[in-house]
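Hi V.,

You were right to ask for the full record rather than a summary. Here it is.
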Amino acid sequence: ERSLQINPNNSTTLNSYGKALAEKGEFQKAFERFERSLQINANDTITLTSYGYALAANNDFQKAFDQFEKSLQIKADDQITLFMYATVLEAAQRYEAAISHLEKIISFDELSLGYWRNFIVLKLGQLCYLAKQEANGKKYFDEVIKNARHADVGRLQAAMHILAIKPYSQEATDLLRQIIETSPNHTQALKMLSLDLKPKGYFERFKKNAESALTDTEMLNRAMYHKILNEISMLKAITYQIVKDERASEVLSKVIKSIETTYDKMTQRRNEEKTKVAQMPTDQYEEIVAIISQTAHDVADIVNNELAIIKRRLQRVLKKLNQKENQKDRLFYKLEKLLQRIESTETALNDLKSVNEGINLHNNTFKNKTLFEPWQTTSTLEHATLSFDIQNGDAEFVGDEEKIKSFLSELMENALKHNPDKADFQINISSKVDNAPHNSDKTLRKKILSANVKKFLLITFSDNGKGIPPEKKEPIFLALETTSKEGSGLGLFIIKRALEKMNGHIIETGTQGARFEIDIPYGEQ
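Predicted structure:
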């Protein structure tokens, strides 16, 4: 203000003032300063670019694009304008247009760009991944590695940019492993690798020799701890980004405190477990697993309780924002994204509990038809048509009713999730009681019959969807294997494991769509 009292027509002061106001979220005042600056000099590319960036920050993308286009009409090769325009295009998810502007920058003389060229090339690599142009993205990351003073620095930068938009990326993992091969104690690479490997890969790399004799119960629990800790860390990072908005600071400060408390409680409980396990003789495996399983339940309960509180707070804020402003702005969508991330964390927690609960059976006597009643009340579910062929429905079965229902729920959820756009999608479930298992696997059939089991409940679950590739039919039952980006890789593993506890079996035999055959011998009351 004092500067403008001295010289009211200083466009540089007006532009700097407008940028400062925009950063504070006072957009209307900022726009007034930019307009005044442009009245003085309509061809000031610096003001046009700053104005465009501020408009985008206020979610007015079309007006922002207009300002950038005006600036480029005046000076088509202005590197700052091209870069800022690309940044705004990325925020609007117009990745190919953003790539086009950055490619113009690197087409300039390399000497004039200097080190900035490497930064632009890194950004291009990341944008190509966002635009599903991964081959081009790899080309740009290879250029970064080639031109870096030290190849490992380039690899680390490339890995960071890939992981920022594609967690658990195999390309990024390979880059980090290359660094560790040449520099085994490279702290940053080791830390990134440990945080970003999938749980299975994490244990393949980091488990100690002493753990190699432990069964999948312990491995899976520890893998899931790692996954949940990552989820909590990600929640915290997302929240810190959103809290920059003044409207979010009050409620999100409480959310951050809750997340930090959750993280501390979880870490404390895990440390208590480690202390107990360290004091146990290594041959007392069952006692060790019991300690780990109990910790898994405790951790799941602790985190679930805290997340329920956080969810309620966020839902209240979202409701107020929607009612108050009558439009969904950038803050609304960021909070919505945080809420989705919390729900993803809750799924991971449920998987952690299921790993343990899958081995405990509670047999009771019930009529076979009760297994299918939850779905028989309707002929459709989401976009699928359901059909049932239940034979011997009134026959009584002795087994774990709730576990078998959970198997069907998992298969139903998987079928819907993997075939979201399938027209005329059909799911068929059949069931009967027989004195022999399915005929699909002769070796398995012979093995089951040799166990002197006299009666089986046979369930067939099939659909007309895209099915499961032949090379995936066996791996899908392994722990932490998944064909879905959102999946944990535990659902089918838990089904198979619980069925084995029942002396039963599941196999996938589909050729046109998925087809699961489940054989469950009658249990003892």
